[in-house]
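ok so for the tutorial part 2 we go from a plain amino acid sequence to predicted structure tokens. step 1 is just haveing the sequence, like this:
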Amino acid sequence: MLTGRQKIIYTNNSPDTLHALHMNLYVNAFRKNSRMHRYHEERDKYYGGSLISYVPEAYLGYSKVQNIRDELGRLLSQREDDTLLEITLAEAIPPGGVCTLTLDFEVKIPAQIRRMGRFNREGVSFSIAQWYPKLCVYDHRGWHKNYYLAREFFGEFATWDVSITLPAHYIVGASGHLTNADNIYAMMMSEPESTSMDRVLPSNGNQDSIPEGVESLQRNLAEITRQQSVTVPNRTWRYHAEDIHDFAFAADPDYKVEMFDHRGVRVNLLCLPDVEQRWAPMKEWVTKIIDYMEAHVGRYPYPELTVAQAGDGGMEYPNIVFITGRRGNFSLASVTAHELIHNWFYGLLANDETHEAWFDEGITSYYTTRLMEHLFGRYANREYETEFQKKWFPREDARIATFTGWAHWVKQGYEEPVLTHSDYFKSDPSYSMATYYKGQIFMNALEYRYGRERLDSLMRDFFEVYQKHHTLTDDFKRFLEYKTGEKLDSLFDQWLNTIEYCDYGIAHITNSKNAAGQNQVKVKLVRRGAITMPVDLYLKLTDGSWTGVRIPARHDDPNKPGLKRWTEWPASDPTYTLTMITDLPVDRAEIDTSGRLPDIFRMNNRSGFLPKTEWHWQRPLGILPTADTYVIEHRPSLWYNQTDAARIGWKMRGKWATDEHQIKAGVYAGTRSRTIDYEITYSTPMYSIGRQVFVDMASYKLDGVFQNELSFRKKWFGGAYERPPYYDVSLGLRTSRRFNSTYLNPGVFWEKGDVHVLTASLQWQPQIFDSPRLKMTVETSTFASDYTFTKADLTYYKPWVLKRNVATLESRIFAGLADGNVPLQDQFYLAGASPRQMFVNPWYRSGGTLPEKGWRDASGQRHIYYDGQGSMAGYADSNALGMHIIAINLDLKLTNPLKPLIKKEILFITQFEPMLFFDAGGVSGKSGKRRHSIPSLVFDAGCGFRYLPAFIPSWMGNYAIKAEFPLWVSDPSLAGQSGKSWAFRWLIGFENAIR
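step 2 — the prediction. this is what the tokens look like for a chain of 995 residues:
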């Protein structure tokens, strides 16, 4: 419990008379049925609801205010409304008037849920922010009375004197500067006070933690603390601060402290012992961050700055930042840079975060990218540990990552205007894309417009004038207009108030001779987006030299050093033709070689039929393409099957920076069969049609099968991107023919002839976690097919969490019905996947890739398994198939019992996941020459495990191994063990992702 007394001296600097004051009580959000609780319970219901729902009452928080009195000692009335408090004044405050209030408050500090609290996975005792009754801002728009919904804040500048009393062994980092000791070391050496108080002790003698998320909260909260009344010495830390708009502090008895002075600023670094080595470079980073920001923006004007490991972060507060410390080198540097930059953009330029979150987050993200490039070089967006990773894993450019992330979001059609109230975005990704990503994109657009040197000069001037003031986007716009003489209404409005986009392209170029015999080039440009920007057009001459022009969108657009100013391109004209005399013919034209122009589709920013293309050897995680480059990665291929023996080949994959025009292709040659095979797939979204519409095409000749596919897919989300319920509909055409059966594994049936089908499927998932899933598929034969049939199947899956992190019962129903002459490869199989499903996985596609004895050993038993369809492993030997199927699968998934006992990860020992299973099902009906149906229901039961080898990286694919031991079957005559219902049977294989 935190108790306090507050004295407020409030000056009314407005022209209005104030009859009441309003305050924020942020901690009230962390109680049951608060607005924040209800808001996230509804908004995040598909994700499991609000975290508060899972936290016992004892670990939630509240804020109580009482005994509010004015300077005459009069008790003032108050009205609490969730996280807001209204205080009715006995006397109104006239313009220029001053009011003094005193009040008592009590705060129950919640467990760490969001930004502030105690007990967290970092192990920091207290991370205290937004903790005191905080005055709302009053400005020309009135009182800023915003309920706290876990998003943003807005506070008044003030002079602060704060005293914090804690047990004497606690070390504190806070806003402001320490006044009752020279520094933290001196404070800890001072004589403590002696006071009796309640002290919170860890239940096990060590600081416990609450890992984030629902799963761990219910398991650990009840064991976190016990409370004792003990007599301990106290120590009071006194801080003073001027011209800041918030006050935060962190405290822990085990903090390791490093202090140093830099450019007149005392810097305190506080971290726990277990991350001390990770924080070793922090001093160097912080000094370089301060130097960079003071050189490019303005001076840090306060005497002290603290970087503290805390329970939530990064989070920025005046003079102090909270950082979660258990990070890799790059992540730690990046988050530290971002939060420290906030002390300029948020701390000193105190914007209204609630209404204009981009103005601190977007600008801060822009300078974070610049600073990380300053600290680590251009390609520093991913961190690798081993020399192999550093050499072969992709380098990632933060500029490209930001642009492509934003461009993909825009093309998906879920963008919202930047200047949306931070609580009113439809989803968290939408908020992030607007404030962080597009905010940074807009700053890039300003850099493109003015050049970096000129923009830095403008930002320094803006900071000098507006620091220690509340600033708005409109202030920024008007200041730029004043300094440049330009009218910027349309620039700011288009980028920040709309979801329009910028898209320029080169239609074609023509070289010719004019009447005077001079070289003349004509470049036709097109504009497909509504946002207008100056166009920097560069021309490469045949001798390799470059020349360039700037085509302004408005008469007052600025010039660009090194570029000739050309005639204006009016917003009313969708096309523009540049005619120019050049010394030599033009070889190529290109828009914006700097990559700063936020053009949503840069593929057409370069002349020529094909886009700029780069070829690279394939790397484990793939190359991240630049925004204007199509990247093709390639590598040799080696495979084995019994027909081809060694199969050698070459594979390639091509991709754009977003998800457009993805190509995979390969060509292979069998060393024994002398057969040439190939495969090629193409996938791209169809943004011109609508959201989440994709076309997929494939053609291949592989392992004795010709197949061609064409499909159209459409996804729907529940009102916001990737918010449930999900619907996925697909319509397609597939033609296939097997021309060589020697590739088939033993016991796998595949009839020759042409099979041409129309396909349709629907998938549905109503929530994220523990969600049921439904999939329905229909196929019907079409023109020129040698088989005439129709088939439909349904899969329904539902997990039942019996005890989280201990046991989950997964239930599954599979049902199918077919009519007509269905080929064997497309019938329903009781034990597992059909031959056509197996063909998708190269390990199961052909005989010899996996050991032949696994398909049929000497006793006729099968041991290689690929689950799917009926998924009754106990009847794999029967190879039962038919036209009608029903199967019910119950899998009891259990937590690895050795994992809690063995702290270190050991291959398989701690990584396998045990399970028990029970199945019931049957398959009937015949088609073709084979009769392998089971006329009545059969049952099986047993145990098994799933194992995902940790040493296989995710980029190599899903190689989860699944083993099942069907120890009991109801009909042993169909299970390869005649007369033995109970017997040891085993099957093993790779997990089937399409089960």
